[in-house]
Amino acid sequence: MSLDEFLEGVAEALDTEAEMKPETALDTIDEYDSIGVLSLMSYLDELGIKASPAAFEKFTTVADLIALAGDRIDG
Q1: Following DSSP, what letter does each residue of 15-34 receive, concatenated?
Q2: What is the rounded distance in angstroms from the CA atom of residue 45 to the CA atom of residue 23?
Q3: 28-73: per-residue pLDDT in tens?
Q4: H-helix or E-strand containing 11?
Q5: Contact call for residues 59 and 27 (beta carbons, < 8 A)
Q6: I need a surface site. Which of 2, 3, 59, 69 has the fewest CB within 10 A?
Q7: How many separate domains does the chain show?
Q8: CA 74 to CA 61: how far, in whole Å?
Q9: How far is it between the farthest Cα atoms of the chain?
Q10: pLDDT of residue 65
Q11: What are phi and psi of 25, to 5 degrees?
Q12: Whole-angstrom distance, CA of residue 58 vs CA of residue 63
């Protein structure tokens, strides 16, 4: 999957119109709350990526989500 496809999936999981860039701070996304985290966990699980709720407490930017996806993103 391309980076753009991944970022679109993140935005869709959060049900947000906010622009997803690696440098986007997660705390600036209104929809990034406990429900949003659960939605992201579900999206990542569909991609075969496991992450605990505790892991999300350490994430600060979209780049952290990209790093979690790792080699599942092309390029």
Answers
A1: T--S---TT-BGGG-TT-SH
A2: 23
A3: 999 999 999 999 999 999 999 999 989 999 999 999 999 999 999 9
A4: helix 3-14
A5: no
A6: 2
A7: 1
A8: 20
A9: 30
A10: 96
A11: -75, 130
A12: 12
> Which two structure tokens, joined as six digits, stand for 67?
């790093």
pLDDT at residue 75 is higher than 80: no
**Domain extent at residue 19:** 3-72
Find out whether 62 and 23 touch, Cβ atoms under 8 Å: yes
pLDDT in tens, 12-27: 999 999 999 999 999 9
Angle formed by the axes of helices 34-46 and 62-69, to 10°?
30
11: tokens are: 């935005």
Q: State yes or no: pLDDT of 4 exceeds 90.
A: yes
CA–CA distance, 19 with 54 (Å, rounded to integer) = 25
Tell me the sheet residues that pair with 25.
Answer: 61
Q: Tell me the whole-structure pTM to 2 decimals.
A: 0.92
The pLDDT of residue 63 is 97
